[in-house]
TrEMBL record:
Limits of the HTH cro/C1-type domain: 15-69
Protein name as annotated: DNA-binding XRE family transcriptional regulator
InterPro entries: Cro/C1-type_HTH, Lambda_DNA-bd_dom_sf, MLTR_LBD
Keyword Cytoplasm: no
One MF annotation (Gene Ontology) recorded for this entry: DNA binding
Coiled-coil ranges from the UniProt annotation: none
Pfam families: HTH_3, MLTR_LBD
CDD domains: HTH_XRE (cd00093)
Bilayer-spanning residue ranges: none
UniProt entry keywords in alphabetical sequence: DNA-binding
Keyword Isomerase: no
Amino acid sequence: MTVDAVERAQVGPLLAQWRRRRGISQLELANLAGVSARHVGFVETGRSQPSREMLLRLAEHLDVPLRDRNTLLLAAGYAPVFQEKALDDPAMRPVLDAVRRVLHGHRPYPALVLDGRRNIVASNEPFDRLFTAGVAPHLLAPPANVLRLVLHPDGMAPRIVNLGQWRAKLLTGLARRAALDERLRPLHEELLGYPCDQPVPELHVPGPDEIMIPLELRHGDRELSFIGTIATFGTARDLTMAELIIESFFPADDRTAAYLTGS
């Protein structure tokens, strides 16, 4: 949300939007926060001006991202409380050290770290070797965006066996995030324009034995299959740290495991 939009917004409707996104009632939120449902209703309609502490308490129970908590504070006339340090700030050194240890420890499996805009912050050697092989150099120039890397016709897309499924999965997730974070909207519009030579399902209905959508990737004369996991820093109080994502890939079948481990 831009500064002008924040200035025009009212905190009550913004708070109500987050409550509805989380699918809870005013009474449920009130019970979580230890206030009356009447007070929550008054805040949402603008009849009551919440204190900074009350607003932060409500946002905490709604699991509002830190960047959006700053937006709520601005809309209520308060200064933001969550800062955003650059990755090269000395205070971020322990975070980057932890990230490097995770990436190193995950070998021989691929892993990478992303920022809030899904730009690649760091990656390990297996990711670089397996996922970026044959990718056009312009897609790897900093800040390299992983969604662009995956879906661009000069990127990984020609090597992804189940590209249609992954395009649907990634664009659906990005659209959901872009609805909350306008910084991602231009990227979403760009990726929508990329070609895809496979059907892109609007809704994926799993088969009876299907438990996940693996990433099926051609690598030389092999087809490798991966499952992905995501980890975040759960106690972060800095915007940059809170938005970091560690994405780790594991073999989804014995053939892939044997190739990655050299067994």
